[in-house]
Amino acid sequence: RYYSSQAAVRAGSLAPRAVSPLLLLRCLRRLVSAIFAAAAAAAMLPGAAASSVYLAELCRGGTCTDPKFPILDFDREKGECVCRAHPCWDNDGVSHQCTSSKFPFLHFTYKADQSLQCSCSSVPQYDSLHVSRDHCAGEFCDSEEFPVLDWNPAENRCFCRAHPCWDQNGTKHECNDPRWPILHYREDFHAGGGAAPKCECVAKLEKPSSGLRGSQAKFSQQAFGACTWSPHRRLPYNPNTF
Fold first, then answer.
1. What are the residues whose beta carbons fall under 8 Å from the beta carbon of 79, sequence distance 6 or more?
2. pLDDT of residue 27
3. In three state form, how does the secondary structure of the chain look?
4. Do 217 and 179 contact (CB within 8 A), yes or no?
5. For the chain, first and last CA: distance in Å?
6. Mean pLDDT of 192-217
7. Between these two residues, 210 and 113, which has the higher pLDDT value?
8. What does the alpha-carbon distance between residue 86 and residue 91 come to, in Å, rounded to a whole number?
9. Could you give the maximum distance between any two Cα atoms of the chain, in Å?
């Protein structure tokens, strides 16, 4: 299912009538129960970490190894792939973090006006700012089967897809080691050309500390990190890459 923040509302005319307090209380109880059930279901989405195929194709051969800039993404203004810091690490001067054991993963989305929203999720996330903000602001996917918000440049539209690592030549990849909980899809180059799909488990996206006590943090003075490119050759062996 695909959802837009531009929801259509149709108003109808209702004839007023008296409602018994007991019936109203029962309705309220059912409504509260439904809200809690929906919240619990959303929190239990199975490993639905986002991985955009569009972004993987756009930045094929690129990886981000600097923990200060761990997110491989595309910068529209620069017109090139970059390594980003998590946008919620510096949201108008506010650094968000998730300390709850039930919701330990920092997640970002963008409203229709492209304003940033930060939240804590039970699901590991690896999102693209380019897809979420530049193409699909205000959109989200809440389906267990198709949890990844992606962009279709040929049809010029956003859509919800299954995680690409859930079916790679019939193999469903998972990340069960808590040290590397995020399932991430990227693409490398085959030696003879074309795409080589890569599914890997990456560490939780946490803002690195500024260093020794008393040292000045230089984290925010740099906007992007450098991508590591591996055109037309295999990457060094990574034990967390399938």
1. none
2. 52
3. CEEECCCCCCCCCCCCCCCCHHHHHHHHHHHHHHHHHHHHHHHCCCCCCCCCHHHHHHCCCEECCCCCCCEEEEECCCCEEEEECCHHHCECCECCCCCCCCCCEEEEEECCCCCEEEEEECCCCCCCHHHHHHHCCCEEECCCCCCEEEEECCCCEEEEECCHHHCECCECCCCCCCCCCEEEEEEEECCCCCEEEEEEEECCCCCCCCCCCCCCCCHHHCCCECCEECCCCCCCCCCCEC
4. no
5. 29
6. 73
7. 113
8. 9
9. 75
Contact between 202 and 184 under an 8 Å Cβ cutoff? The reply is yes
- State how beta strands 139-141 and 2-4 pair: antiparallel
Checking if the pLDDT of 5 tops 90, the result is: no
Handedness of CA 75, 78, 84, 85 (dihedral sign): negative
